[in-house]
Design goal:
globular, mainly alpha, 0% strand
Length: 274
C-alpha cells in the first residue's frame, strides 16, 4: 500500500517562498483589468431586461451559497473516492485528505482543474452560439462551475466547504480572482490575519453582509470578455475563451491560497513537536 509522503520542514518553507512569489506577481495590474469595467457600463443600457433579471438571479444564487451552500454543494464522497484512488490509501473523511503531501494535493487539484477547464470551454462555446440570448444561461452557469471547482479544491486540501468559514474563504478566492491590485492586497491581508488568529472567523463571516460587491466586481472584470460573446457565431470562440480563462484564473487562486493554508498548518505541527 502506498504511504502518504511527509514533507520536510525545509520543503514546506520552500513552498511558502513559491507562494509568496506568486502573490507578488498577482499585484501587477494588467491593462485589461483597468478597462474591464467599461463594457458592462455600456451594456447595461442595451441589455434586454430578461438578461438583466438573469444576472440579478446570479447575485441571489451567490447569496444562497454564502448563507447555506445553495445548489452549489459538491459531492464530498465523489471527491474523497478520487483522492483515495490516487493516494492508494483509505480516506474516509475530509480531514484524512489533509494528511496527504502537498505534492499529492497538487496533482489531484491539477487533474480537477484540467477537467473543469474543458467543461467550461465547451459550455462557453455552446452558449456562444446564440450570442446575447444564450448569455443569460452562460453567466450563472460559469459562476456555478467556478464555485464547485473551488469547493473541490477545498476538499482536496482537507477543508470542508460545508463549514461557514470555508464558504467565506471560497467567496474570498472568487473575489481575489476578480479584484484589482488594491483589492487583492486587502484580501491577502485579511486571509493572513485569519491564518494568524483563527478567532477572527466570526469577523470575516460578518463581512458577508457585503457579498453582493463580490459579484459586481466579478461581473465588471469579466465584462470585456463576455462583450464579444454577444456576437452570433463569433461568440462561440469568445465564449469558449472567456469561460476557460475564468475557471483557469479562479482555480489558480483557489489552489495557491488553499495550499498556503495547508503549508502553514503543516509547519505549525512541526513546531509543536519541537
Amino acid at each position: 500500500m502506498r504511504e502518504v509522503c511527509v514533507e520536510s520542514k525545509e520543503r514546506l518553507q520552500q513552498y511558502l517562498v513559491e507562494i509568496e512569489k506568486w502573490e507578488k506577481d498577482q499585484k501587477g495590474l494588467w491593462f485589461w483589468d483597468k478597462i474591464s469595467r467599461l463594457p458592462f457600463k455600456i451594456l447595461d443600457r442595451f441589455t434586454p431586461k430578461f438578461i438583466q433579471e438573469k444576472l440579478n438571479q446570479m447575485i441571489g444564487e451567490l447569496g444562497k451559497y454564502v448563507q447555506t451552500g445553495g445548489q452549489y454543494l459538491v459531492s464530498e464522497k465523489g471527491v474523497l473516492s478520487r483522492a483515495e484512488r490516487h493516494a492508494n490509501i483509505p480516506l474516509t473523511t475530509i480531514e484524512d485528505v489533509g494528511q496527504l503531501s502537498i505534492d499529492q494535493m497538487t496533482e489531484l487539484t491539477e487533474q480537477i482543474i484540467k477537467e473543469r477547464k474543458k467543461f467550461a470551454t465547451v459550455q462557453g462555446a455552446t452558449t456562444g452560439i446564440g450570442g446575447i440570448f444564450t448569455l443569460a444561461i452562460d453567466v450563472p452557469a460559469v459562476l456555478g462551475t467556478a464555485l464547485k471547482t473551488l469547493q473541490e479544491i477545498a476538499i482536496l486540501h482537507g477543508y470542508d466547504p460545508k463549514k461557514d468559514e470555508e464558504r467565506v474563504f471560497i467567496v474570498k478566492c472568487l473575489q481575489f480572482a476578480s479584484s484589482d491590485i488594491v483589492g487583492k492586497e486587502a484580501i491577502l491581508n485579511e486571509l493572513s490575519r485569519l491564518q494568524k488568529n483563527p478567532d477572527d472567523k466570526e469577523e470575516m463571516i460578518s463581512q458577508l453582509k457585503g457579498w453582493q460587491e463580490v459579484f459586481y466586481t466579478y461581473r465588471d472584470q469579466y465584462g470585456w470578455k463576455k462583450l464579444f460573446q454577444m456576437i452570433p457565431i463569433l461568440g462561440i470562440v469568445f465564449g469558449a475563451f472567456a469561460n476557460k480563462g475564468m475557471i483557469e484564473d479562479v482555480s489558480e487562486v483557489g489552489m495557491m491560497l488553499y495550499r498556503k493554508r495547508r503549508v502553514y498548518e503543516k509547519i505549525q505541527k512541526y513546531n509543536e513537536t519541537v
